[in-house]
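[step 3/7] fold_predict: job queued, chain A
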Amino acid sequence: MLRKQSIFTYQFFRDSELLTISRYGENEAGPVGTVYQATFSLNGQEFMCIDSIAKHTFTFTPSISMFVTYDSESEVDHSFAKLSEAGEILMPLDTYPFSERFAWVQDKFGITWQLSLEPK
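[step 4/7] structure written:
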């Protein structure tokens, strides 16, 4: 049986939290305690993710990324600093023709994030 629990709030996205997390229990398909499914919100937008126990020949790629817009430069800067820790910067935090403040980073887990200041 999957055990569910509601957890904490993310530290660098406002209005964001881990809503539920389901882990494998005894005599289930995955190793006990590993995540089966989770739901979370980032800036109020809900997402669901799953972790497959099947072996795959693929991993995360930059072809899919999370795009997050912010109301202030300080929010962009803070998220950029946190997400780029032990990650890779794909486009440095800077001014671009399409955004006054933008960065594209791959976090330490391989997920890519596009961070942009909301146009005024």
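[step 5/7] annotate
The chain has one helix and eight strands.
The longest strand covers residues 88-96.
exit 0
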